[in-house]
Amino acid sequence: MSAARPPVGAKAPPGGSATAAGVKRGGTMHAARPPVGAKAPSGGSATAAGVKRGGSHASALDFPAWMSDRQAQVEAALSRWVPFDTPAGLGEAMRYAALDGGKRLRPLLALAASEAVQGNAEAALRAACAVELIHAYSLVHDDLPCMDNDVLRRGKPTVHVRFGQAQALLAGDALQALAFELLTPPGRALPQAMQAALCRLLARAAGARGMAGGQAIDLASVGKPLGEAELREMHQLKTGALLQASVRMGAATGARVPAAALAALDDYGAAIGLAFQVVDDILDVTADSAALGKTAGKDAAVGKPTYVSLLGLPASRALAGDLCARAHRALDASGLPGARRLRALADLVVHRKS
Amino acid sequence: MSAARPPVGAKAPPGGSATAAGVKRGGTMHAARPPVGAKAPSGGSATAAGVKRGGSHASALDFPAWMSDRQAQVEAALSRWVPFDTPAGLGEAMRYAALDGGKRLRPLLALAASEAVQGNAEAALRAACAVELIHAYSLVHDDLPCMDNDVLRRGKPTVHVRFGQAQALLAGDALQALAFELLTPPGRALPQAMQAALCRLLARAAGARGMAGGQAIDLASVGKPLGEAELREMHQLKTGALLQASVRMGAATGARVPAAALAALDDYGAAIGLAFQVVDDILDVTADSAALGKTAGKDAAVGKPTYVSLLGLPASRALAGDLCARAHRALDASGLPGARRLRALADLVVHRKS
Known about the structure:
2 copies of one chain form a homodimer.
Chain A lengths: L62 H19 L8 H9 L6 H12 L4 H23 L8 E2 L2 E2 L1 H5 L1 H18 L9 H15 L4 H10 L7 H25 L6 H28 L2 H4 L5 H4 L5 H5 L1 H22 L5 H12 L3
Helix pairs in contact in A: 1-4, 2-6, 3-4, 3-9, 3-15, 4-6, 4-7, 4-9, 7-9, 8-9, 9-10, 10-14, 10-15, 14-15
């Protein structure tokens, strides 16, 4: 009761059109289909191709093919790891929330970062799925009536519409636990120290000083003007922390990665984390709802502070470009020969049309 | 909407009497004060006293003193680790949920199990707090209107009554993440393999095949008759998994614990996990609300299946006694000389009056 955020705008009924209904506000990426015609790598390093990885030759392919391959790999792994056979239909709600969803940006970042450091492929796939499960649970909880009260996501009824609020709450809770379960397989598949490092990074990014904290700021900021510093802090926590953690976790699957390279990847992660949100705000006013897959202009309509409302459109575009350049410079500075997928992902984040 | 559990009985308004209001149904332990006059150890092993631990001589004291000392230690650690300085008041809601609460049975089990295996004291305290944070978050979410819709817990307004539903949801989410954060401190304070093992145990106990799964069964079972096997499965997951994990996590703080001892501790954990619920059901019909700190007879009033309704009171009492004896035998079989605190905790679980 009380501090619940007021529902944002009128909602389409379940089963309504995915493109026209108010599905989601800023902070998430949610194309219903795998991106078609994604950008080719821009300036990929000529010195070394990505690392050959167990059973996959995709790293020799160009970026769209790499991306499709990795998205399929993540989808298959999530389908394997998010359980069917749980009591009382809970697994069904979890799978509904986690499968068949979005561009899988966070998993792609984790996988690309792991390739950049020639990391452990099994650990990378687990990290990719774990970070996606945290993202998925946050969407389930964020959609609940006491939060954003959204009825559609990616063109489907939201989890609580489909399964009831209580089951949605539990499914989100169980998805968070599952993320840490994926990172700590029994046996000797992953080094114990790597398991601990991955849990450490994910727990911090998900918690009160990360994603959950950013959501609390967002909640408290409804109807209050935010300055750029406050807006930046909110987004750094709400969206940026998990994006940056995706890169960090990918990097943590490597052995003996130089500290300078890790610092450079951190800078890369911070830049694209912020760029993601700036571009979200730009698209909110420039793209139409059909391209966006959600209601355009929604943030402005409810008076939510955005980069565009604070800086204007031209300065926001310039900021996005600057952040992309910073991300590229960080990769150059990393000294990592296999960073070209990360470079292409930065371009994707900044130049996406939805 | 839809599958939300109907509120159970009429609720007292915030600020109402803690003893008479409908605060909580079975599955949790929630004395508002540290227990006074708790049982002395029954048949504590004469062969060895508990292990002396850094800075504390409490293990040489008798059980009530040991318990008070450990409860204070857990309270202080939680107060140190559940953060104040988080954005938008989220930490305040988290602290409200986690501090000043209950008997701390789960932490006591973790600490006692660690003492039984002469485990790492820092790891034990972190495990104790982590398992309590999972318990605390589950109560916050369980109290939400879409679940049990409870307005009072331990005589205080529930978290959503005090802070709003959205903040309660986020506080619960952040408490879960914090549990894993506590288990993975940076630096060399805890062995990496121990951190991974603790996360592994906690994630499984909290998730779809543990606590969250048990809650889903509970949710689905409203108004449906359950047989004893189904009732047992629900409780094993909903309450038992986390109680057993408390013991396992404490044991995981030891080095080179024999497999047979670990198996015996597992059997101990399973026995007291179930005993806890059987006793809860007995108290629901035998204790008055004042002694219980919650509405007596509540489960029966809403037609929830309980051990008493299935087996009758005498057979339920016999079952509780059998489970206590099984827990004691498991400790005897463990060959662990320092298990007397675990023995006393089994007695506490079975002979408690609230």
